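Look at a sample.

——
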Amino acid sequence: MNVLLDTNILLDFILEREPHVNYAEQIFEMAKHSALHLFMTATTVTDVFYIARKEKGKAQTLELIEDLLNCVEVVSVDKTVILNALRSELTDFEDAVQECAATQAGIDTIITRNESDFKPSNLVILGSEMFVTLYGKHSNESA
């Protein structure tokens, strides 16, 4: 299963934001022990760096992102993705970019904490808690 992680899920994981870090950690554990493949957009990398650097400092944030790249693949954000996002029915442009990048990469599920921001999406949009609830036991059984 291929899933795109929204920026907020990655920040929950990197910044250990309570109470959400538990579900983010479980998603990464599921990916270690199952056929779950994690993705993020190229633009998410810069967003995560910008936000995490304020709390963790530049050097530690660069290390965290390098570690993140060992377990999360990056999907492209190109001209086609941007044009599609501009035409998207999603009201939040960043979310539209993520949805269009996921669609272009053949990913049909996005994990986020802002499910309502993706309302008109044709993709499966799940909160981190719901994703772990739905797929956590199943992925542990297949490990």
Q: What stands out?
A: The chain has one domain: 2-136. Residues 2-136 form a domain with the Rossmann fold fold (CATH 3.40.50.1010). The beta strands are 2-5, 37-41, 72-75, 109-112, 124-127. The longest strand covers residues 37-41.
